[in-house]
């Protein structure tokens, strides 16, 4: 089998059986993320109550890393405010850049620490967060291509 | 009279392992596995002879070229200019003065775009390219079209990735002022029938540019036999250093073109009233060039010629047939580019697996392939896919590596499929 620190059991599991995959019957926020050079698309729909995420669903075509990150994020985002999620995204960016090796708030997303050794694939894992942020900000689209 | 031997000596069998030993990098391990380098269309590895040539230049005769009269300058100039002779022989150019040294194909094509095409084009004119072009043979034309009001038109390919030559020729209408075609596709491996296209262009008085970046390492090139007007190639795909390349053009075309870059080296006399330019090729070589790089490229050309391009092409043909058959045994695999005449490039996708996941997981097995759009967005759009994985082979690759590559794909399928 593969000796892969990136495609861990948790990542494969979230890729094969993504949590909260699909659309919401009624959403308060939504955005479409796209990395056109990869051909990845990722739609995030949210139902927010009192400034906190009550439900998140995602859909789209993307690589295993983007899909697994979206699936993990869809669990992590619940009950968090946009400010809290922005803080979490900053921590996640530090993780995939190799500036920290783990953070207790990141839960399963800590599995993505190996991206420190795969700089080209970071944009895949960052797309779900960027799309979530766009949705919360009332923007309709997001991309992580052209960023380092 | 000497007797002619009745039996020809048996040609020596091609032994890739013998040549592998010349490439120090191929001995390294990646993720604790022996490296399998299948990304040769992206850039090729460099033999020791090239590394030594660059090293020797910096250690023993580093100096600027064509201006210093001291010993080091003479030595550097001779070694640098020798590459121009070698390139002329490599493509069978009629004269070394038709070889413009550039940073690569991109600079070569841009030189043609701005110095040859732009002054000639007007609104309503057309440039003809094909669906399978690299961005380097698309974007310069678009930029020139924007400035002149000319239009880019595109000759179609078949689903197998073959240029529909009859359509290309039909599209050579009087409004076409330049045609540009890739000799060997970097994505599909397709070898285009350049000789036929050149004949049709010539009959209509339309200059033809051939982008030979991907052809140079894999097929013998004879620009006089091809009958084209411009030919470009890049050194780093030819086992030479990055930042080296060549533009060949017929002398009368080079003479008719104004300089592209201005600066040192490309002038005869300079005053604030009037500057006169050097004759081609120096007219197009402003500034201090990549001297070490071109000396390295000279060593690369010697190296390739010593093996023999016909022998390389024959070995790679065999390896391609083997790799194609083996790869096609993988369930759910879609191969892009099945032209009958192709070089050893295999673009593919596997059902349900993203090209980047495939490439990253293969890398964990020590296997380097490219994933992405290969600088050919329009071609990806033609096939309706955002990206493919691509294995591109060289003469130092082996059947054993192909077997290990296909076995690794099987493991990726198990993991993600």
Strand content of chain B: 15-25%
Oligomer: heterodimer
- End-to-end C-alpha gap of chain A: 32 Å
CATH topology group of chain A: Sufe protein. Chain: A
CATH fourth-tier homologous superfamily of the largest domain in chain B: Type I PLP-dependent aspartate aminotransferase-like (Major domain)
**Which structural category do the helix and sheet elements of chain A fall into?**
alpha+beta
What is the CATH architecture descriptor of the largest domain in chain B?
Answer: 3-Layer(aba) Sandwich
Quick one: CATH class of the largest domain in chain B? Answer: Alpha Beta
Which H/E pattern describes the elements of chain A? HEEEHHHE
Enumerate the spans of chain A where pLDDT stays under 50 for 5 or more consecutive residues. Answer: none
- Please give the count of helices of chain A: 4
Q: Per DSSP, what share of the residues of chain A sits in E-state strands of 2 or more residues?
A: 15-25%
- Please state the average pLDDT score of chain B: 94
Radius of gyration of chain B: 22 Å
Strand order, largest beta sheet of chain B:
4-10-9-8-7-5-6
Instruction: Provide the CATH topology of the largest domain in chain B.
Output: Aspartate Aminotransferase, domain 2
